[in-house]
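User: Fold both of these, please.

Assistant: Here is the first one.
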Amino acid sequence: MRNADYFKNRKVVIIGLARSGVACANLLCDLGARLSITESADNADIRTSILKLKSSDIKLEVGRHSRDFIAPNDLAVVSPGVAPDSLVYSLLKDCGIPLVSEIEVGYLLCPAPVIAITGTNGKTTVTTLIGRILEAAGKKAFVCGNIGNPFCAEVENIGAGDFVSLEVSSFQLENIQAFKPKIAIILNISRNHLDRYKNMSDYLAAKKRIFMRQDAGDYLVLNQDEPLLGGIKQEARSKIVYFLEGAGFNANQAAVAAAGSLLGVSRGVMDKVFRDFKGIEHRMEYVTQVNGIRFVNDSKSTTVEATVWALKNMRHPVILIAGGREKGNDYSSILPWAREKIKSLILIGEAKERIRKALGAVIPLEDAASLPEAVRMAFLKAASGDCILLSPMCKSFDMFANYEERGTIFKTAVFALSKEQAVE
């Protein structure tokens, strides 16, 4: 690691005890920081997270954020799930404590070049594929960030000759200071997270922070067909590179190809990786077939645009399972594809009424109390040749810990149904 002594004996408070908070705490513990963690929730998941901490010397505050606990610290590391309008932000400001994100900590310590990927849709696929093409080219790559494994969980394993393919969300970019990826990629921008941002301008501003520290020795990869990204060329100091078009490339592959060309990966290597790539878990993941009915897990689709993309790629009539926590989505924008592809819609979660208001006049729909119930209801409505698609258009946090848990519960329910049908 570089800057290994930077955090030694520094009094650091970590705000939030989710996955990135635990990873950051364990890393800074190894580096000799004097750690405190404050977490507003107090539940079984938080207690499980506490058991993952390396040291019992870490000071803990659970179930609240208090001034007395926060004030003695020199630096705060804020988890991405903590909103800027929350009480703890006010406490940090009142105490004069500077704050950074977990990816900032990882970047300060990371000795390897970082390829950072953001955008509304496609981040996980592109981040994964960049890691795959680097590995296929004989290079050592670490795939981490918002994709699941936090940056701080990998930093101690990364060497100067390696590469980091890092998925970053707008939330993670809000509190970066020195973060400076060698290659920054903005895939696309569409309506999202308007439960956190006042408008699309604020959301775009958060995304654009990915290149704010870049200079003429760095690269910014953009899709020149994205209208909201048109003015960035005048704002960035880095070299602008556009998606690399190729025969049969989709937008994600075109972004990967552009990054790959900058990294010295041959077109032949990239083409082979693209051909062999079977997708990622929870994104258009084929689960199984029961009585001629296909089940597809698209739990990672938390925006209307992602679900539209899924529907565009469906060749079978769809029974859609959707819903979750509201995030400012415009559900009516799915209507053109809903009329053509969706036979019926099963709703779950907090956003039921908003989705019903937008789509109820066009699509037959019913409510389910749980995801397993939704699976069974969808199965009873489906006929051989149909596809039951979980593509929620919403966040998962009303009913699940994350989209991974939602997808896993969907698959578990499907396999239970398959087993029952086999017995019958």
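And the second sequence with its predicted structure:
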Amino acid sequence: MTRRELGVPAAKQLVYIVEDESDIARLVKHHLEAAGFETRCFGSGATVVSEAMKEVPALFILDIMIPGTDGLDLCRQIRQNGTLSRVPIMFLTARANESDRVRGLELGGDDYIVKPFSPRELVARARAVLRRSDQASPPQVLKVGNLEIDSTAMRVRVDGREVATTVREFRLLHYLVRNTGRVFTRDQLLDAVWSETSYVTPRSIDVYIRRIREKIEPQPEQPRYLKTVHGAGYRFEAPR
């Protein structure tokens, strides 16, 4: 059941906090609720997906190092769930290595915050992620080759079959398709799709392009649509 169906005002967005350190969970909960959010806290990932299926949150905030199912595997479960796949995910973790950040992105994370963290920055970045996911595109369906990109429903179909994408993957693909034939540098794509999120690096674009290729290209290693322009960036190319 949705928040609207339960009679909760739309502005009161629900955030699931998955954090096994009680002091940190309370800190995050306090600042999010002070900012106008509603929260639910989980000390492990065991029941998160089943509870989210009953009441879909607006945002997940996941620690990676939690008992049982870790945060990365929980992210994977969420992204593979048809009902939850487009809900934004933020990682809040002590893992600061670049490889961990990249892994979090590859699995579908929308933001990655390293502990220790600023609670005010956490709230600001949560709001930025939610603004991005809530922004409506002009109603239209773009058709290129065997692809259909429905900007109203935020759906991608390949040969008539729907392909699950994250919000960020969809926005990147939609932006490139709307500008078919134009070459964009990584920095230009960052400005267009991630303008309010400082954690993303040019390498993140490569991660997202690879993930999109795996979903839409018949042969991802020899892309038909998403072309790499060596020394410049990427372009979307309509097949002849």
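The CA atoms of residues 21 and 43 lie 7 Å apart.
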